[in-house]
From TrEMBL:
Name of the protein in its database record: TetR family transcriptional regulator
InterPro entries noted in UniProt: Homeodomain-like_sf, HTH-type_TetR-like_transc_reg, HTH_TetR, Tet_transcr_reg_TetR-rel_C_sf, TetR_C_31
Organism: Microbacterium panaciterrae
Keyword Cell membrane recorded: no
SUPFAM superfamilies attached to this UniProt entry: Homeodomain-like (SSF46689), Tetracyclin repressor-like, C-terminal domain (SSF48498)
Annotated HTH tetR-type domain residues: 8-68
Tree of life domain: Bacteria
Family annotation (Pfam families): TetR_C_31, TetR_N
DNA-binding region(s) from the entry: 31-50
Keywords: DNA-binding, Transcription, Transcription regulation
Protein backbone atom coordinates (compact mmCIF):
# COMPACT_ATOMS: atom_id res chain seq x y z
CA UNK A 1 0.00 0.00 0.00
CA UNK A 2 1.39 3.39 -0.93
CA UNK A 3 0.92 6.54 1.05
CA UNK A 4 0.31 10.08 -0.05
CA UNK A 5 3.02 12.59 0.77
CA UNK A 6 2.65 16.33 0.78
CA UNK A 7 4.53 18.53 -1.63
CA UNK A 8 8.09 18.98 -0.39
CA UNK A 9 7.95 15.97 1.93
CA UNK A 10 8.55 13.45 -0.85
CA UNK A 11 12.13 14.38 -1.67
CA UNK A 12 13.36 14.20 1.95
CA UNK A 13 11.47 10.97 2.53
CA UNK A 14 13.12 9.45 -0.53
CA UNK A 15 16.67 10.48 0.37
CA UNK A 16 16.21 9.23 3.95
CA UNK A 17 14.86 5.97 2.56
CA UNK A 18 17.82 5.73 0.18
CA UNK A 19 20.23 6.10 3.10
CA UNK A 20 18.37 3.38 5.01
CA UNK A 21 18.29 0.96 2.05
CA UNK A 22 21.99 1.40 1.26
CA UNK A 23 22.90 1.14 4.93
CA UNK A 24 21.02 -2.17 5.21
CA UNK A 25 21.64 -3.76 1.80
CA UNK A 26 24.61 -1.94 0.30
CA UNK A 27 24.59 -0.29 -3.08
CA UNK A 28 23.77 -3.56 -4.81
CA UNK A 29 20.43 -3.57 -3.01
CA UNK A 30 19.53 -0.06 -4.12
CA UNK A 31 16.73 0.14 -6.64
CA UNK A 32 13.99 2.69 -7.14
CA UNK A 33 11.57 -0.05 -6.04
CA UNK A 34 13.48 -0.69 -2.81
CA UNK A 35 13.56 3.02 -1.98
CA UNK A 36 9.87 3.42 -2.77
CA UNK A 37 8.96 0.37 -0.69
CA UNK A 38 10.96 1.71 2.25
CA UNK A 39 9.28 5.12 1.91
CA UNK A 40 5.84 3.58 1.37
CA UNK A 41 5.29 5.38 -1.92
CA UNK A 42 4.94 4.48 -5.58
CA UNK A 43 8.31 3.96 -7.28
CA UNK A 44 7.39 6.49 -9.97
CA UNK A 45 7.88 9.17 -7.29
CA UNK A 46 11.58 8.26 -7.10
CA UNK A 47 12.00 8.63 -10.86
CA UNK A 48 9.99 11.85 -10.80
CA UNK A 49 12.21 13.50 -8.18
CA UNK A 50 15.61 12.18 -9.25
CA UNK A 51 15.48 10.62 -12.70
CA UNK A 52 18.65 8.57 -12.26
CA UNK A 53 20.24 6.41 -9.62
CA UNK A 54 23.29 8.69 -9.64
CA UNK A 55 21.16 11.78 -8.93
CA UNK A 56 19.36 9.94 -6.13
CA UNK A 57 22.64 8.87 -4.54
CA UNK A 58 24.19 12.34 -4.86
CA UNK A 59 21.18 13.91 -3.14
CA UNK A 60 21.18 11.24 -0.43
CA UNK A 61 24.90 11.77 0.19
CA UNK A 62 24.47 15.51 0.57
CA UNK A 63 21.53 14.95 2.93
CA UNK A 64 23.44 12.38 5.02
CA UNK A 65 26.42 14.72 5.43
CA UNK A 66 24.19 17.57 6.61
CA UNK A 67 22.32 15.27 8.99
CA UNK A 68 25.64 14.03 10.41
CA UNK A 69 26.95 17.56 10.88
CA UNK A 70 23.76 18.68 12.62
CA UNK A 71 23.97 15.76 15.03
CA UNK A 72 27.57 16.37 16.13
CA UNK A 73 27.12 19.56 18.11
CA UNK A 74 30.69 20.55 17.25
CA UNK A 75 29.94 24.23 16.95
CA UNK A 76 29.62 24.29 20.74
CA UNK A 77 32.66 22.25 21.72
CA UNK A 78 32.06 22.82 25.45
CA UNK A 79 33.80 20.42 27.81
CA UNK A 80 35.83 17.30 27.16
CA UNK A 81 32.97 15.06 28.36
CA UNK A 82 30.37 16.93 26.31
CA UNK A 83 32.63 16.69 23.24
CA UNK A 84 33.06 12.92 23.59
CA UNK A 85 29.40 12.34 24.49
CA UNK A 86 28.09 14.40 21.56
CA UNK A 87 30.33 12.73 19.01
CA UNK A 88 29.65 9.23 20.28
CA UNK A 89 25.92 9.92 20.26
CA UNK A 90 26.10 11.26 16.71
CA UNK A 91 27.63 8.01 15.44
CA UNK A 92 25.66 5.58 17.59
CA UNK A 93 22.19 7.15 17.42
CA UNK A 94 22.03 7.15 13.62
CA UNK A 95 24.59 4.64 12.37
CA UNK A 96 22.87 4.45 8.99
CA UNK A 97 24.20 7.91 8.14
CA UNK A 98 27.80 6.85 8.56
CA UNK A 99 27.36 3.42 6.95
CA UNK A 100 25.81 5.06 3.90
CA UNK A 101 28.63 7.60 3.60
CA UNK A 102 31.29 4.88 3.77
CA UNK A 103 29.42 2.85 1.15
CA UNK A 104 29.58 5.91 -1.10
CA UNK A 105 33.26 6.49 -0.36
CA UNK A 106 34.05 2.92 -1.38
CA UNK A 107 31.85 3.20 -4.46
CA UNK A 108 33.69 6.37 -5.52
CA UNK A 109 36.90 4.35 -5.52
CA UNK A 110 35.33 1.95 -8.03
CA UNK A 111 33.14 4.35 -10.00
CA UNK A 112 34.50 7.75 -11.05
CA UNK A 113 30.93 9.08 -11.39
CA UNK A 114 30.81 9.45 -7.59
CA UNK A 115 34.27 10.91 -6.96
CA UNK A 116 33.12 14.53 -7.16
CA UNK A 117 30.26 13.82 -4.74
CA UNK A 118 32.64 12.23 -2.24
CA UNK A 119 35.14 15.07 -2.68
CA UNK A 120 32.31 17.48 -1.76
CA UNK A 121 31.59 15.33 1.30
CA UNK A 122 35.15 15.78 2.54
CA UNK A 123 35.21 19.48 1.63
CA UNK A 124 31.99 20.05 3.58
CA UNK A 125 33.30 18.26 6.67
CA UNK A 126 36.62 20.09 6.41
CA UNK A 127 35.01 23.53 6.25
CA UNK A 128 32.63 22.65 9.08
CA UNK A 129 35.58 21.51 11.19
CA UNK A 130 37.44 24.76 10.45
CA UNK A 131 34.38 26.78 11.47
CA UNK A 132 34.04 24.75 14.70
CA UNK A 133 37.68 25.29 15.63
CA UNK A 134 37.49 29.03 14.95
CA UNK A 135 34.39 29.29 17.14
CA UNK A 136 36.33 27.44 19.85
CA UNK A 137 38.93 30.23 19.73
CA UNK A 138 41.61 28.63 17.60
CA UNK A 139 43.72 30.86 15.40
CA UNK A 140 46.82 30.20 13.35
CA UNK A 141 46.83 27.19 11.05
CA UNK A 142 43.20 26.23 11.59
CA UNK A 143 43.02 24.40 8.25
CA UNK A 144 45.81 22.01 9.18
CA UNK A 145 44.33 21.29 12.60
CA UNK A 146 40.89 20.79 11.03
CA UNK A 147 42.37 18.18 8.68
CA UNK A 148 43.92 16.32 11.62
CA UNK A 149 40.75 16.50 13.69
CA UNK A 150 38.55 15.34 10.84
CA UNK A 151 40.93 12.50 9.97
CA UNK A 152 40.73 11.32 13.57
CA UNK A 153 36.94 11.59 13.61
CA UNK A 154 36.76 9.76 10.29
CA UNK A 155 38.80 6.95 11.82
CA UNK A 156 36.64 6.86 14.95
CA UNK A 157 33.49 6.53 12.84
CA UNK A 158 35.01 3.76 10.71
CA UNK A 159 36.14 1.93 13.84
CA UNK A 160 32.63 2.22 15.27
CA UNK A 161 31.20 0.68 12.11
CA UNK A 162 33.78 -2.10 12.43
CA UNK A 163 32.65 -2.84 15.99
CA UNK A 164 35.43 -1.32 18.12
CA UNK A 165 34.35 -0.98 21.74
CA UNK A 166 32.77 2.33 22.73
CA UNK A 167 35.29 2.79 25.56
CA UNK A 168 38.16 2.67 23.04
CA UNK A 169 36.46 5.25 20.87
CA UNK A 170 35.78 7.46 23.88
CA UNK A 171 39.50 7.29 24.74
CA UNK A 172 40.41 8.40 21.23
CA UNK A 173 37.97 11.30 21.49
CA UNK A 174 39.43 12.38 24.83
CA UNK A 175 42.92 12.33 23.25
CA UNK A 176 41.58 14.37 20.35
CA UNK A 177 40.05 16.90 22.76
CA UNK A 178 43.42 17.31 24.46
CA UNK A 179 45.08 17.99 21.07
CA UNK A 180 42.45 20.57 20.21
CA UNK A 181 42.80 22.31 23.56
CA UNK A 182 46.57 22.41 23.25
CA UNK A 183 46.18 24.19 19.90
CA UNK A 184 43.56 26.69 21.10
Amino acid sequence: MTRTVSYGEGRNLLVASTVAVVSEKGLRGLTFRAVAARAGVNNSLVAHHFGTRQALLAAALEWAVEQSIESTGLLALGSEEAFADALLASITDRPELQAFQYEMILEARRDPLFRADVARLYDRYQSFMEESLRQAGMSGDVRSMARRVFATLDGVVLQHIAGVEKAELRGALHDLWQSIQAAV
